Amino acid sequence: MKHNITLIPGDGIGPEVTTATVKILEKSGVCINWEIVRMGAEVIEEFGTPMPPYVLESIKKNKVALKGPVTTPVGKGFKSVNVTLRQELNLYANIRPIRTFEGVPSRFENVDLIIVRENSEDLYAGIEHMITEDIAESIKIISKKASDRIVEYAFKIAKEQNRKEVIAVHKANIMKLSDGLFLRCARNIAGTHKDIAFYDVIVDAMSMKLVMNPEKYDVLVMPNLYGDILSDMAAGLVGGLGLVPGANIGEEGAVFEPAHGSAPDIAGKNIANPTACILSSVMMLRHIGEAKAANKIEQAVVAVLKEGKHLTCDLGGTTGTIEFTQVVIDKMLEQTN
Ligand code: ATP
């Protein structure tokens, strides 16, 4: 079967890591017709906006996108393109699997957790204003609908992946109404999934527990801002942002993208680690029913990292993006034969 998929190369290291990923997908045996869509700073002059209408049209039509990081120009009055994309497509769930890899230097072993981040509201609703010249106010929105939906999604993932427990992360002791509502919703939804253990942890305590014993945790579900912070922090526990994939799931489509940003400091130097983007495409393949190809790619990446001979700079090696990609392809073909 041929899949129509939107490809957003993005900026910074985006084009390098997406090119690497597309090459690997091509060799995996899946048949993809890519619709390449440009967005971000590079199109502002031409279209007057970093996100021209064709971006949403393409994703709404194809229902699936693979996206490199896109930076929103600061101070030019444009709303974050990533937040806009999530809101316009109602991509309500952000999923970030965080795991250790044998062969990758890390202080921990056997970490295998999933952060399920609410993606549509909280302080990201973008409602803020100046009360006086010296006082600004940002409004945190938490709704029953979005909280129920994200917790339900966390349990769905837990079931699909044979996970044992779901933890709701919050700060309901201080934000009694907003986080209090999230927590009430989480407890109610958990009550309908008796086969999976559930408890809740306050976000500051959760941060401490995660940096001490990340291997103890399974599925964590939380409002938007805590998810943003804890997922970057958890990435640091397993070897850095270059390893962490992500999926944004919604009713109108799904956008798969690495957890990292555009890393302009290393762009164009052939040193970016494409693993996060490759593993995002693995999540994408599972989403579109191509589990066999997904497993093949994932096994090849795991094997290459485990050998430890071809690691990118961020992991202490010297292998370039292009060379790493070729090593993964060779490993994948070797495993297939
Ligand atoms: P954003 O605000 O868009 O999330 P950021 O500035 O917080 O972006 P990133 O761009 O994600 O952060 O990256 C932070 C640093 O981590 C980069 O400057 C880079 O040095 C390193 N980094 C991120 N992604 C990768 C990668 N794929 N390979 C190697 N190093 C990376």
UniProtKB/TrEMBL annotation:
GO terms for biological process: isocitrate metabolic process; tricarboxylic acid cycle. Residues 4-328 form the Isopropylmalate dehydrogenase-like domain. GO terms for molecular function: isocitrate dehydrogenase (NAD+) activity; magnesium ion binding; NAD binding. It holds the Pfam family Iso_dh. The lineage of its organism: Bacteria, Bacillati, Bacillota, Clostridia, Eubacteriales. Keywords: Oxidoreductase. This is Isocitrate dehydrogenase. Transmembrane segments: none annotated.
